[in-house]
Design brief:
With 388 residues, this protein is α/β, with parallel strands linked by helices. The chain has 16 helices and twelve strands. The protein has three domains: 122 residues, Rossmann fold; 167 residues, Rossmann fold (3-Layer(aba) Sandwich); 72 residues, Helicase, Ruva Protein, domain 3 (Orthogonal Bundle).
Length: 388
Amino acid sequence: MANILIIDDEKSIRNSLRDVLEYEGHSISEADNGMEGLIKLKEKDYDLVLCDIKMPKMDGMDFLDMALNAKPNSVIIMISGHGTIETAVASIKKGAYDYLPKPLDLNRLLVITKNGLERKELVQETIHLKKRVHQSKSGTILGESDAIKEILDLIEKVAPTDARVLITGPNGSGKELVARELHNKSSRKNQQFVELNCAAIPSELIESELFGHEKGAFTSAVKTKKGKFEQAEKGTLFLDEIGDMSASAQAKVLRALQEKKITRVGGEKDIPIDVRVLAATNKDLKKEINEGTFREDLYHRLSVILIDVPSLNQRVSDIPILVDHFAKVVSEEIGVKPKAFDPQAIATLQSHNWSGNIRELRNVIERLLILCDNIITKEDVVRFNNGV
């Protein structure tokens, strides 16, 4: 099911389009002029937009310009009346996906809509793949300290297997990078890497996020939705901050790992899964087990292999390498000239207590690149980083 926005000043046209598209299972929103349509487009992501060309307040061509400026990947199909075909062709040159002439041919409507939605899926997949490529280039585990060498050696041994791995370490230390490296060096590397931050999802929604739900399972379940386990089929599911998962969700994850099948919320059908599960936490799970907030049986299921990621304070010898890396990556991302750090600046950074670990270091580097000129000195570090 797709979310489709219909923009047309003729109510009869809107009703005809709604009837046909809702019959096909799509969710429909309406606007009777371009201005209202633009407001709705900015407030919500639509999979497809059907827009008339001749309308009051704001016509379709103006809407097209502003819509593509606000959301460049929008798939917009223009609707043209008699005598406006040239305008419709011009709209395609401006970025519209296609056009429908009036009177509407409902068969053509269905074909164009289907093709437009497939185009949307391809665009989203391309964006996702580009993001993965960027992450694989910039998300390398860097360092030459003994602790990092030990982790890299362990990844080489563990990644080719399907063994579950529990990654521990403080916030901002790079646990996600370890998970991604395990995925990228595995036989599942060409499949999805799906992640879920268990601490960021309310307890009442975590099961729906993990296992999906059937239409009508609860008040806001207006359509069937696949959960993270199904999305990660044949690939890797990374459960970050697993220590914050609710007791009910823990029980269901344990069942999924034991039986290799899940059931959607509100569903009765068992769905087989083939997913490698990696988990991470900044908590002491053995302490959580003793306190009764984490299941011991789930802990043992997840921790076939344990990888402990050190804090940045435990690997200060890696800071020069990390600074050089972040200086190059961040300068490119924010569009500033790359800058060098003099030895005293590096030494000052090494003497800092990095409570925020690598995430904090990256933020400091970004701040220095923006605020400092030419070579970054010890004085710059002290001045722009609250007395590091």
